[in-house]
Amino acid sequence: MPEVSAPQPSAAPTRRPGARMAWIGQGFLLLLALLALFILVRDLIQDPLLFVQIVISGLQLGFVYALIALGYTMVYGIVKLINFAHGDVFMVGSFVSFYAVTRFQLHVWPAALFPTLPRGWVVVIGSLTVMLLSMVTCVALAVTIERVAYKPLRDAPRIAALITAIGVSFFLEFFGALNFVFSPRFIPYQRPFEVVTLYIKDGIHILAEGTAPPDGSITFSNIFVIIVAASVLMQVVLQFLVRRTKIGKAMRATSFDKPTARLMGINVDRVISFTFAVGAAFAGLGGVLYAIAYPSIWSQLGILPGLKAFVAAVLGGIGSIPGAFVGALIMGQVEALTMGYISTPMRDAVAFTVLIIVLLVRPTGIFGEPEKEKA
Amino acid sequence: MRALKMASVLALAVLMLPLSAFGGETIKVAILAPLSGPVPTFGVMTRDGALLAIEEWNAKGGVLGKKITPVVEDSQCTPDPAVNAANKVIDQDKVRYIIGEVCSKASIPVSEIANSKKVIQISPTSTNPDVTVGRDGKAKDYIFRACFIDPFQGTVGAKFALGTLKAKTAFIMLDQANDYVKGLAEFFEKAFTAEGGKIVGKETYTAKDTDFSAILSKVAAAKPDIIYLPDYYNIVNLVAKQAKEKGIKAPFMGGDGWDSSDLDLKAAEGGYFTNHYSPEDTRPEVKNLVKAFGAKYKDDKGQPKVPDALAALAYDATNLLLQGIKTAGADDTTKVKNALVKISFNGVSGKITFDANHNPVKSATILAVKGGKVKFNSVVNP
Question: Are residues B161 and B143 in the same domain?
Fold first, then answer.
């Protein structure tokens, strides 16, 4: 892990004397890429509909990863810390929404207060409230974690903070597994709104419940649309925040040079807290959407999506916001295509192979010019 | 004074010994049930089912003219307490017939002791093959079970799919890391293809997966008549829900892993699963058990208790044993085990005969998820 945390940009270009044999490795990777390309093209020609269907499920996964990856990459950009507890904040987000829906019926509160409100509005406002509550809770949790666990270690070696992050992650997972917290079992998630399946064939239609879509149609659900919309919206909001606002400027300054930023009168601690908060808000939203899409939750729900979002952030170039987004979409496709054309249990292996290849070939990632692009 | 106290206690203990030894005219049956530990409800149901069977036999005059005395021990579904309980009932209480344990991991060590001491043991519900089969691959002479072993459900499931559902094609989804799931899937595939069915796809996943969209896309493309998913209810909930949302209409089928109050009935609607028994079965054996059990045992609210699969299998196991003793005509475990090997017994959970490994060959119950309820569908014979 420590190697992961510090992808030194200088490591890639400088060749050691023994690097003459590197062409073997590069050739192998090239062959691997060609093989993958061949398989994909073959499958695309064989059954284009299935291919599109798998790409759609990959997009759904990728856009959720994007929401989580933004938090990783932003925090890394500011304090050079891989916040491994981020995935567990994501898990807490889905549990908060679960309790809001099952215990407090928060998803139908407008109906209770304003009985005349049309049903559609009730669902929209109620669901938004649930998401908002999750986001707020996650923000509070992340800011607390930052204050308690990371702030005291700000001047300690980076490895200390990293290990603390892993510790916080384990704490959240296993504290959540206690019976009186979230319990260690898989819990069927109750959605704030119903899933509507849509299919495309001569236009977009709604699939009636209990019927099969006609042959040759492509199906997707309202959740897919919501995930894509929410993820893109958040990306836009974040870009605006970082590029056009004062706090965004402060973030960029802090990321660029912390001591100097402090000298310029920027409250660095506040900026760091703010960064954690924004990342956690996205993770909270991601947690709700993920649980709605894949409705079974448990206390270790956050581990794998968290790690994969981390891979996505590294792939895109850790510290880069557009990089995290692009990386997440690629990771979603890699996973979905692996599930579709190799086998489902291979998905994690392939996902982490991507991490290894990225670290070997281009440790700075796709958008990796950390000196310039920091947020 | 203290010595006197000690002596009187000892004297009392010595007096007690012959008292218990006087039970020579009774046949003792030990019931090893997990009354505490991780699965106490299993233990209570098992004990109640076995005690009911013993009571019924005693009401008819016992077996071989002798009354049957139950010896109930808490074996906690855990190897150590189960072994202690087994040693206690065999060495101290001189019991030579054991009903139990419920859990395989406790039944296996008990079976080692029972077999070496020529004590008959019938486990009502332990499904692990090693309960009745020793390390040498041969059946343990004195050990039997009343439930079918897991993979058998796959065979029955295939039969039901081909016969009743008239399915011609099936898609199998399995968790390769889970022996229970793997066993069922393997036997399903074997039986399904052997009788002319076609497996149009087979996909694996892991227990931690939550996203099944890629697999389900393939299912949708393969258009199978049924989807065989012999996993536990939590996976079934997820997969069935996502399948419904993809517009997949083919019914799901599974095994007794579905049997849980946490099964998402809305998602699993239209599905079928194999199980040991259903209280809704209309055969007279089942009706009689439900009636007698409800009359003897009440729940917290004073309502008659409904016997579940554990109670039914414990009831069957006890009846099997007593029928075996009766057929053997002697209170001699070697003769009883020879009688059990050849027995053909009409139990609550189906007609039972034993195969070479002392596993019962019997019918399985098919339950259907319909209208938001789990309903009895039919009984399928192997």
Answer: no
Residue A229 has pLDDT above 70, yes or no: yes
Give the number of other CB atoms < 10 A from CB of residue B23.
Answer: 14
Assigned domain for B2 exists:
no
Distance from CA of B94 to the nearest CA of A (A): 42
Taking only the tens place, the pLDDT of each residue in A100-130 is: 999 998 888 888 888 888 888 898 999 999 9
Compute the distance between CA of residue A244 and CA of residue A241 in angstroms, rounded to an integer.
6
Beta bridge partners of B30: B71, B98
Query: Left (φ > 0), alpha (ψ -120 to 50) or beta: where does B103 sit?
Result: beta
Chain A residue at shortest CA distance from B210:
A294
A197–B209: do the CB atoms touch at under 8 Å? no
ipTM above 0.85, yes or no: no
Handedness of CA B39, B44, B47, B52 (dihedral sign): negative
Clarify whether residues B131 and B159 are in a common domain: no
8 Å CB contact of A197 and B221: no
| Inter-chain residue contact B234 with A340, CB threshold 8 Å | no
Contact A344 B208 (CB under 8 A): no
Is residue B39 located within the same domain as residue B94? yes
What is d(CA B280, CA B315) in angstroms, rounded to the nearest whole number? 17
pLDDT score of A27: 83
pLDDT, residue A142, reads 96
Do B30 and B138 reside in the same domain of the chain?
Answer: yes
The pTM of the full predicted model, rounded to 2 decimals, is 0.76
Q: Are B347 and B316 in contact (CB under 8 A)?
A: yes
Q: Are residues B338 and B271 part of one domain?
A: no
CA–CA gap between residue B285 and residue B277 (Å, rounded): 11
Closest Cα in chain B to A346: B205
B205 contact residues in A (CB cutoff 8 A): 344-345
A329-351: pLDDT as tens digits: 999 999 999 988 888 888 889 99
Instruction: Give residue limits of the domains in chain A.
Output: 61-361
Q: Which range of residues forms the domain containing residue B28?
A: 14-148+288-362
User: Measured between CA atoms, how close is B234 to chain A, in angstroms?
Assistant: 7
DSSP B126: -
Instruction: Please state the domain count of chain B.
Output: 2
